[in-house]
Each structure stands twice: as C-alpha cells, then as structure tokens.
Design brief:
Strand order of the largest sheet of chain A: 3-2-4-5-1-6-7
Strand content of chain A: 15-25%
Distance between the termini of chain A: 49 Å
Largest sheet of chain B: 6 strands, mixed
Number of strands of chain A: 12
Number of helices of chain A: 11
Order of helices and strands of chain B: HEEEHEHEHE
Strand content of chain B: 25-35%
Helix content of chain B: 25-40%
Order of helices and strands of chain A: EHEHHEHHEHEHEEHEHHEEHEE
Structural class of chain A: alpha/beta
Number of strands of chain B: 6
Distance between the termini of chain B: 31 Å
Oligomer: heterodimer
Shape of chain A: elongated
C-alpha cells in the first residue's frame, strides 16, 4: 500500500545485510530530503558515516548532518530528551526533518536492549505530531535476532523500497508491544538490602538510598540524582500505586541498582518516555525525571505488581 | 511556636498565615521534616526549611496561594531546604502560572536538584513568571 506524505511522524525500520544495501536505501533517502529542503541527519558509527558521505559525494555530504551514534544513543531517556529538544527547536511551519538513525547493540545488556525497544515503541507516541521522518536502520550482522524481531513490531512502516512506503504488517501499538509478556526481569539477589516504605517513610527512603549510593562509591552528584530518582518512583507508588512498597539495593561490578516494587499495576511500560510537555501535565513526570537522571530505568510488570529498576553506573 | 497542622482546622492555618512572622507547618511522619514560615506579608516572603516533598506539598501550595493573593511578587527562600521533589516544585510552578500582570514568584537559594527538576520537566515558556536565584556555589 502506498502511504501519503502527511506532515506528522513517519517512523520506519530498515533491515540490511550489507553496506551496499544500506547505501542503496540511505543515499536516496538523504538526497530526497536535501532536494526538498529538509534538514537531514544521519546517525551511525563514524565508519559507516564516512562510507555514506563518500557515496553521497562532496556536495550532498556537506549538506547532511552526520552524528556519531555513541553521542546520540547514550541512554534511552537521554535520546528521547534529545529528540524532544530537537523537535522543539524546529520552526513551526518549517520543512519536515529527516533522521536516518542506527541504534547500536554491541555491549548492550539484555535489560538495555529491552529498554531500547521500548524507546522505539514510545517514539511513536512521543513524536506522533512532529513533522519528522525517522528511518531506523538495523545491520543484521550486528543486531541480535530479538532486536530484529522487535523492530518490525515497533515501527509502523518498513523501508527498503524507496520511494514507496509500506506498512509493517507486524506493527503493534506501544501499549500492546510492552504488554506482550516477553520482557523479563532477572530476580533481585537474595542478599539484596531491603527497606519497606509508605507515604510517611519517604525521608527514610532518601537517607537509605543515599547511604547505599555513597557505599557503592558514587560521587555526590550521582548520589543526588539517584536519591531523587528513587524518591520519585517511590512517590509514584505512594500516590498512584499500592500506597507503599519495598526498595532493594545491590551492586553489580559496574553499577548500583535500586529496585522499587509495589503491588500496584502500572498499565504502561513506556511511562516516562513521553516528554512531559506532550504528556498529561499531571502524570508521567516522575518516571521521566528518573529516566533523565539515571543510566537505565526498567519498568516491568511482575505477578506481584510493578517493578521499577534504576541503574546508576559506578 | 511550631504550629502542628494536624491539631487545627483549615481556617486556623489560614489565620496563622495572615500574621507574621510565624511558623505554620511541620510535616507528619518524620518529626518536623519541613518548616514553613511567613517572614513578612508585605512584601510577601516565605521561608522553608528541611525537606519539601509530596507529604507537605499541599501545605506549601496553600501558603504560596495565600501570599500570591496580595498581587505582589512573592519571595520563597529555600536556603535552609536540603531536598525538594517534583511535587513541591510543581506547587511553585503552578503558583507562578496562576500569577497575573507583572507579578513574579522569586525563589532564592533552592537546593541544586530544583533547577534540574525544572529544566527536565517543564519547558522554559511554562515557567516564565518563576525567577530562580541560585545558591552560591559551596
């Protein structure tokens, strides 16, 4: 089916097996953007950006903005905030913006890979009204099979037949995608420190988390960010969840993890990915804040309720 | 004298707020986790100490609303506040947004997290009537 060029979000996935296949799609994508006067960005590894620049030729390459993926795809929360700032900086009534972005998967933990998939799903909501054409590229040689399977479910369209556009038959809404039950959360270690809390105990929560942050070797700024993140997630449990819950803290070799569990049933696992300015003014800000301040936030439904796991690198 | 809100009906709190200077709120739970004091009502100056969070954001919001009714700029001194969360920051944002004309809400010496909360959760156009005077770097 041919789709119209409406001035709202176009979010496509391209899977490719060779650099030639990548260039075969990206070169016309970039050139069509430049020809239409659209600001055009490509995010990828420096090596692939160089290859694309050569294929485009000096004039088109000079007109294209190249962004190294390790500066864009830092954490899912930061990438979403960057998207928000980017869209807000665009003039109203200006041309559409094109972004050809490639998430990277090497060195990603399973938890990180799951959250990046949630990010891709949330993008459909967060940028729904933005005049942006996002083409996400997946190198099949470097992408784990589950991430490839997720990509066709988180992207409304599949690329690979430019200039024609095609819906992804497997696409599901962000809510359906995150509710599929395939996501997992590894159990907390049995010897993890634990503190139960309710609405009267938030000050104690902050002192407890601060102690664990310092003990894990975090610097003062990291402890401050962690305390606020955990406080806001615990506050959500008090206000919107079961009225209280439990916090567990433990260290891994490279990170401190604080997990907030409560018996409430959070109906969306993408909460905190949609920028507050675009969201209901009274909801979602606490998890948005936590996603901005920490290195990773997992939101998972478990049989007992909801688990929010906050990771801080140390 | 500390004024325990739990022992007084709502209008008493409001009357206390009308006098000055006076402490008007200390939170339940952890004893006296926060204090709110109206330093002067003309010009309106509110001083807070301790931790401002969702457990006392409603009282904070009432104090701000009462002082803002004067139509004058309201100063909120947070130099003695060691923690502020999203709920209490929201009370400041909503109080500023409810102001009219040239009225401003001026927050002095907030904990460093407050500016981070503001920048992360609100667009600058949403907080134009809120002036923040940062704490001197320690």
């Amino acid at each position: 089916m041919t789709l119209t060029n409406e001035q709202t979000l176009i979010h496509q996935a391209l899977t490719y097996d060779t650099v030639e296949d990548y260039l075969a799609e990206m070169v016309p994508f970039v050139r069509a953007g430049l020809a239409a006067g659209e600001p055009t960005y490509v995010i990828n590894t420096p090596r692939k950006l160089g290859t694309l620049a050569n294929a485009l030729g000096p004039a088109d390459a000079a007109a294209t903005e190249f962004v190294a993926s390790h500066t864009w795809h830092t954490t899912p929360g930061a990438a979403m905030a960057a998207c928000r700032q980017f869209v807000e900086s665009m003039p109203p009534d200006g041309p559409r913006v094109r972004i050809g972005g490639e998430p990277f998967w090497t060195k990603r933990t399973d938890a990180e890979a799951q959250e990046w998939a949630h990010y891709e799903a949330a993008l459909n909501v967060a940028l729904a009204a933005a005049p942006v054409w996002v083409l996400c590229t997946y190198d099949t040689r470097l992408t784990p099979p589950h991430a490839l399977a997720d990509a066709i479910r988180t992207h409304p369209e599949l690329a690979g037949d430019t200039p024609n556009r095609h819906r992804s038959a497997r696409y599901v809404s962000p809510e359906q995608f995150t509710a599929n039950g395939a996501e997992t959360v590894s159990p907390a270690p049995s010897d993890a420190a634990r503190l139960e809390f309710d609405g009267h105990g938030l000050a104690a929560v902050r002192r407890w988390v601060s102690g664990h942050g310092h003990a894990a070797g975090l610097d003062n700024g990291q402890v401050r960010d962690l305390v606020l993140s955990v406080h806001e997630v615990a506050a959500n449990a008090v206000l919107h969840g079961a009225g209280g819950g439990a916090i567990q803290a433990w260290t891994e070799p490279s990170e401190l993890i604080c997990q907030v569990s409560d018996a409430g049933l959070l109906d969306s696992r993408i909460v905190g990915y949609v920028p507050p300015a675009a969201a209901d003014p009274e909801s979602g800000r606490g998890l948005w804040l936590a996603r901005q301040l920490s290195d990773l936030v997992e939101v998972r439904r478990v049989p007992e309720g909801t688990v929010v796991r906050i990771h801080i690198n140390r | 004298m500390p004024h325990d809100r739990r022992q007084f009906p709502e209008q008493v709190t409001t009357q206390v707020l009308d006098a000055h200077p006076c402490p008007l709120y200390a939170s339940a739970g952890d004893a006296f986790e926060v204090g709110l004091t109206v330093v002067t009502t003309d010009p309106p100056v509110l001083r807070a100490s301790g931790a401002l969070d969702l457990t006392n954001a409603a009282a904070f919001d009432r104090a701000l609303t009462t002082l803002a009714a004067s139509g004058q700029d309201v100063t909120v001194d947070l130099a003695a506040v060691d923690f502020i969360d999203l709920a209490a920051t929201r009370a400041l944002v909503l109080a500023a947004q409810a102001m009219s004309g040239h009225q401003r809400l001026v927050v002095t010496s907030p904990p460093p997290v407050m500016s981070m909360i503001l920048q992360t959760c609100w667009h600058e156009t949403q907080v134009m009537r809120l002036t923040v005077r940062e704490r001197p770097a320690s």
